[in-house]
Amino acid sequence: MHTIDLAYVGRGPHEELVTYIADQQDYYADEGVHVALRDGCVWDPERLRRGAVIGLGRTLLSRLVGGIPWVALNVNTQRPQFWFLARFGLNSLADLAGRRLALHPAHTGPGCIARIILREAGLDPDRDVHTVVRSPGNYGMDLRRLRDGTIDAAVVGDTMAPEAVAAENGWQVLAFAGDHFQIPTVGVAVDSTYTRPDDPAVQAVVRAHRRALRLIQHEPDTIQRYLHSFLGGHTPKEARAHYEKFIAPHFSTDGQADLVVGDAAITAVAAELGVPATFTASDFFRTTQAAA
What we know:
The chain has helices at 13-24, 27-30, 45-48, 56-66, 109-120, 139-148, 162-169, 177-180, 200-218, 220-230, 236-247, 259-273, 281-284; strands spanning 2-8, 33-39, 52-53, 70-77, 83-86, 100-103, 130-133, 153-156, 172-176, 185-191. It is of the alpha/beta class. Helix 5 crosses helix 12 (259-273). The chain is globular, with a radius of gyration of 18 Å.
């Protein structure tokens, strides 16, 4: 049996659900690979390079900025799973002008994407919005600050069901990031310096994840139970509503990247980071099938 380290670099179903399904359904064992799942959320890019990585946004940024030759072999979605959540009285992204917004750092995937979305809404994130920068995943503190009024809005991920949280607190969901910016994201990537994209262990993981993606579409009751394990603070009905609105319609069935969308996204991200786009989507995203 092959073995491989697989690191996730963010939390929530967008990062972890497909891996969780592959493990629970014994797809890894079926494909002949033992996967050691690692928490790489605070790892620097150099440490991540030695194994496979789930988060594609972070690897794309580190290839643009640092030239690390990451290659993405599987894509779960091109709709980033982040939301702009705001206190009552704010009804659009434009209403964030002059407001206090909790935001991921600009050098992270979620932070970069949020800044692109703000600019498209006519807001300069450095001048028009009072940003409160915090690490990805610290959304519990965001909710506390929204409740006590020390911030007006926050960009949050799917460690919660944002629409259910908004309804419970009388808040607003100003925007789903995936409706405003598309980028092939969250899947499996390797640094070709250390790991061949056609390495048998890597290809086994890709096959297992593609089986998991198909299950998301074909067995909603099973996926709802799995998803509820991530959204334990919500009812099964709320977890099901989140699945039906944000996961089932937007997750891939084949793990393939749309290269036209990928090229536009790379250009936009490079411009936001202030670096040249030195590669194309076809250089970064491999669209060939993993042979059984």
